[in-house]
Amino acid sequence: MVKCKLEDLSYSNLVNIIQGDERKASELLNDFAKEYEDLDSNIRIKIQQLKDLENRKLNLHKASKNIATHVKKDLPMFVQREKTVIILTEKSIEIVTNVI
């Protein structure tokens, strides 16, 4: 994991920290490389999670349309539940709570 997380990455701040010391420079580069790899890994994980969420969303919509087909209802379809209305269209499914 990253030893230190330096927020100010400006040239002037780096110069102030390193002060010409190559050991400090190599330590910073090492820390930066580790943080960079961690971030890259986290980005790949988040991208996959987003893809999984999008697939789940598409599957829920498809399944909702299958329900409408099964009960022989055309789209758009409106379903009243408690104090909400569910609206199913060809492109989306949503819950409307602004119902009188």
* Mean model confidence by pLDDT: 93
Shape: elongated
Q: What is the straight-line distance between the termini? A: 54 Å
Give the SSE order as H and E letters. Answer: HHEEE
Strand order within the widest beta sheet: 1-2-3
Low-confidence stretches: none
Radius of gyration: 26 Å
* Number of beta-strand segments: 3
How much of the residues is beta strand, in percent?
A: 5-15%
How much helicity do the residues have?
A: 55-70%
Helix run count: 2
Which class best fits the helix and strand makeup?
Answer: alpha+beta
How can the largest sheet be summarized? 3 strands, antiparallel
Folded structure, characterized:
This protein has 100 residues and is of the alpha+beta class. 57% of the residues lie in helices and 14% in strands. The protein contains 2 helices and 3 strands, in the order ααβββ. It has helices at 11-18, 22-70, and strands at 77-81, 84-88, 93-96. It has a 3-stranded antiparallel beta sheet, covered by helices on one side. A hairpin with a 2-residue loop joins strand 1 (77-81) and strand 2.
In a few lines, what is going on in this structure?
This protein is of the alpha+beta class and 100 residues long. The chain contains 2 helices and 3 strands, in the order H-H-E-E-E.
